[in-house]
Amino acid sequence: MATTMTRANPNSLLAVLLCAAASVLPGSSAAAAPSQLISQTCSRTSNERLCIDLLQSSNRSATATSVRDLAVVAVTAARRSALRARILALELSRGARGAAVAGRLAGRCAALYADCLRASARAVGRVSYMPEPYDEGAADTVSALRRFPEECEGMFSEARVASPLEKVSREVEERFGVAAEIVRLLG
């Protein structure tokens, strides 16, 4: 039994390899679909640049196939910002020896952000498992999360103490705002 081996045409082999490589490179149709979805979604928000940054901060955006998937990514990414704010507030509350008032306020902000994290976990679940038709309350739930950084900054303002959390609190508030807008797009 003799077998005949044929030699592959090098040009055909090169063409197959180039096609395979092109399907996984950025800018290809396989990779462009999530980017296009992100662009289309974010263009419908009040802060397109922040929306894109928020969604691209998670690798899960690359596998998103719907606005609902992006909404879950957005709320989860905003929640991560709240976690960073809580960690910073805890660090400031423990290290504020010379600034006792600022340290106490940072500790209270840490507690607020702990509440925010619990509430945002429920919001992620609500958006993830939201039944059709769209539940308007889900966007309101996400939007309401903006009150936590507002309350934190309000405490510093009332005490007339400069807030060491101002930047991170503003970031959390803005990110939850954009996340709420994306959730609202589901309606």
Question: Explain this structure to me?
Answer:
By secondary structure, the protein is mainly α. The chain has eight helices and no strands. Helix 4 packs antiparallel against helix 5 (100-128). Residues 10-32 have low confidence and may be disordered. InterPro entries: Invertase/methylesterase_inhib, Pectinesterase_inhib_dom. Residues 33-182 form the Pectinesterase inhibitor domain. Residues 1-30 form the signal peptide.
Brief synopsis:
This protein has helices spanning 10-22, 29-42, 48-56, 67-95, 100-128, 136-144, 147-158, 166-184.
- Backbone CA Rg: 23 Å
- Please summarize the sheet with the most strands: none
Shape: elongated
Structural class: mainly alpha
C-alpha termini separation: 68 Å
Low-pLDDT ranges: 10-32
Helix segment tally: 8
Question: What fraction of residues sit in β-strands?
Answer: under 5%
What portion of residues is helical?
over 70%
Mean pLDDT: 84
Could you state the order of secondary-structure elements as H and E? Answer: HHHHHHHH
Number-wise, the strands total 0
